[in-house]
Amino acid sequence: MPPPPARPAQICRNRLCLDGAEALASLVKFSSHLEELFADDNLLGDDGVEHLADAVVCCRTLRLLSLSHNNIGPRGADALCHSLVHNMALKVRTVCRPPQ
After folding, report:
1. Which CATH architecture has domain 9-93?
2. Average pLDDT over the chain, rounded to whole?
3. Which of 1, 38, 41, 68 could disulfide-pair with 94, CB 3.0 to 4.6 Å?
């Protein structure tokens, strides 16, 4: 019997910061069924996004990653760009930095 279809993981508005990003990255890295991850409106910042960027390289099932409103600056965006080179199936949606 095939596994049930994967549901999107939604971890929005949970005030996840660096510690939460590290834990989430560990889960993403070793997930074999995760296809969509919505982690919008958290406090990930560049450091947290760097952890996630490293993890998505290993997660070959992840197709969509949404990280809007996480105070992602140039360093975090650069880490995401590098991860996309290694995971061509992944689409990153809505990475933006709120107005200063």
Report:
1. Alpha-Beta Horseshoe (3.80)
2. 88
3. 68
Domain residue ranges of the chain, discontinuous segments joined by +: 9-93
Query: How many Å is the Cα radius of gyration of the chain?
Result: 13
Alpha carbon of 93 to those of 4, 36, 39, 76: distances in Å? 25, 11, 11, 14
Q: What whole-number distance in Å separates Cα of residue 96 and Cα of residue 40?
A: 10
Alpha helices in 3-91 (DSSP H): 18-29, 45-58, 74-86
Phi, psi of 74 (to 5 degrees): -60, -40
Instruction: Give the pTM.
Output: 0.85
Q: pLDDT band for 99, please (50, 70, 90 cuts).
A: very low
